[in-house]
Fold this sequence. Notes:
Distance between the termini: 8 Å
Strand content: under 5%
Helix content: over 70%
Number of strands: 0
Order of helices and strands: HHHHH
Amino acid sequence: MERTVASVQGAYFLTTGLWPIFSIRTFMMITGPKTDLWLVKTVGAVLAVIGAALLVAGIADQVTQALVLLAVGSAAALAAVDVIYASRKVIAPVYLLDAVLEAALILWWVAALLL
């Protein structure tokens, strides 16, 4: 199950990370206007790299403790940012949907590690 969750999270992070790099216009249509586009694209690039690492590890069946820490830690960090800044109305409420998805990924990791 670890392979599957790593692959799914990897695909999600890779896709959402590349999205603002390749189409900042459509990204902002969904997530709201941004002022520091370089920062949005930088975060996207970092997420894409994390996603690629998770995807490769899942496909190659090389899910290590370090990779699980990266997966769960990055999902938790993103969920925290989503909830904190959406509740303060700094970012659009649509980010709460991402927080739910990040929480689901964390729970999936917990299930995968316990089974």
